[in-house]
Amino acid sequence: MKMLAWSGARRGVVLIVTALLLTPVSAALAAGKAGPEAARAFLDELRAIAPRWRAVGVQLGDISWGMELDLSGRTPKVRYPDLGCEGHWEVLGKAPGGPLVIIEQIDNGLKECLDGGVAFLEEIDGTMLRYRWLDGDGEAVAKAVLVPGRFSPDLADALYDLTLEHVDRSFLSLAETRGLVPYRTP
Length: 186
What we know:
alpha+beta; 8 strands; about 35% strand; single chain; 5 helices
């Protein structure tokens, strides 16, 4: 099972489109409206709540997957335990009132997960985080809701239900929503 994978030719197009998507973020960073300071402050707030966050995410293609975000170090690290990949986040910035903007770099498991994707992370209510991974057209094709703690397959069903309860599922077709396969331990 691959997470958000596509051919090498399309990947080049995605990288170009990704650069275009980041233009408004880059403009805000240059204008001093967002930046590394705001991003660091946001990450520090999250670390104060918990150093680790967990979720079960959903994506197009009736796929769900476990996710763990580790904020204990200087660089945020992400792990997808049942997909067999992990990496780190290159934090680009955060506009006031907007999401944290990141590039997800996969360090291990490049055959299972796509490297270099743009994602957004935002606080929902002080106890949950909304994660959105964008495709080359700027559309969210994978989403998750993270809560404090380490990922455990024993909690996967509850985390899966939480994600479905708190994300806009319009990115999934009705047929895909009805056919979405609940998280299963690999």
